[in-house]
Every structure is written in structure tokens, then in C-alpha cells.
Design goal:
alpha/beta; 10 strands; about 30% helix
Length: about 180
């Protein structure tokens, strides 16, 4: 199962994700987010992660991520954009949108777990579930939805900072549920 940790800001956090076996890291380029990283820093982080782990640039619109999109493995935005590496983020069933990955966040960025609707079965082969996931609830979510992958951000933070032990507990829970 594909596992992504989002909202990273430092080389050390990338190193933790790599050492724990995460498949991808995400860098938030949406200015209102407390996890925001500017384009210059995102380019440094992507270069640092290169060939060690997949990278996502994350925003609401393509305009927010365009300055770093050319280096990222995936572009995660909430608008349909005609690019081959689109990770389309939505909480609606939008089968007419062509995307490499479909990121479903029921919490709409709030970090509050709300469960997942049955229509997500349609997207299973490219579905990343997110929204309020943490080490305590991710195994149940993975077992019930059987997605392609899981995505976490605030669920592995202590005092607003990524925590190595929580990151480890999260990926261990995902891997255990995926067996």
C-alpha cells in the first residue's frame, strides 16, 4: 500500500519519511495553511528527496503550485488540470476528471475523521484516503475502504510539528492493516 506524509518542511522530516518506508512526501504551497512552504524552499526539498521518495506539491489551485510542479512526481490540487501526474483532491464523485490519483479528504482539511462513502469503490485503484487519519484509526479505514493508499498530515504531529514516533506508528498501522 502507498503511504504519503504531507505537510513536510525540513530535510530531517524527509529523512524520517524515507527511513520509515513512506512512499511519498507532500509539500503544501497553499499560503493560508500553517504547513505552507514557499516555492524556493519546495524546490530545495524536492531536490533533496529526489530518487529517494516520491514528491507531491499540494495546493488548492494549480496556480499555487505551478512554480514547483515541473519537479514534483505528483501535483495535488482541487481543480481538474490536464496534466499526466494530477493527484486530484476532492470530496465529490467526479468520474469525468482524468487523474493519476484521486485524493479523498472527507475532512476538507480540518483533520477531523468523518469516514468514507461507498462510491469511493469506483476509484479504488488510484484512491488515496485522507482526512483525520492517525495511528489509531488508519487501520480500520484501510481495512474498510481497501484504497491504493493513505495520506496523513496533522495525525502525525505533536504541537504542530511532524513527530517521528507518530509517523512510525502510522505507517506500522497501515502496513499491518494491509496484510
Amino acid at each position: 500500500m502507498f503511504v504519503k506524509v504531507c505537510g513536510l518542511k525540513t530535510f530531517e522530516q524527509i529523512d524520517h519519511a524515507v527511513s520509515l518506508g513512506y512512499d511519498a512526501v507532500g509539500f503544501v504551497m497553499h499560503k493560508p495553511s500553517k504547513r505552507y512552504v514557499d516555492a524556493e524552499r519546495v524546490l530545495e526539498l524536492i531536490k533533496y528527496a529526489d530518487k529517494r521518495i516520491k514528491t507531491f506539491v499540494v495546493g488548492v489551485s494549480y496556480g499555487e503550485v505551478k512554480d514547483a510542479a515541473h519537479l514534483a512526481d505528483y501535483v495535488q490540487v482541487s481543480e481538474p488540470v490536464a496534466i499526466p501526474n494530477l493527484a486530484y483532491a476532492s470530496d465529490k464523485d467526479e468520474q469525468d476528471v482524468s487523474c493519476a490519483l484521486f485524493v479523498y479528504d472527507a475532512s476538507r482539511g480540518s483533520g477531523i475523521y468523518k469516514g468514507f462513502p461507498e462510491w469511493l469503490d469506483t476509484y479504488r485503484d488510484k484512491l488515496l484516503i485522507s482526512g483525520g487519519l492517525n495511528p489509531e484509526n488508519v487501520a480500520e479505514a484501510v481495512k474498510s475502504v481497501r484504497p491504493f493508499g493513505a495520506d496523513v498530515s496533522s495525525g502525525v504531529e505533536k504541537n504542530g510539528v511532524k513527530d517521528y514516533e507518530l509517523m512510525k506508528k502510522f505507517i506500522d498501522a497501515v502496513r499491518g492493516a494491509d496484510r
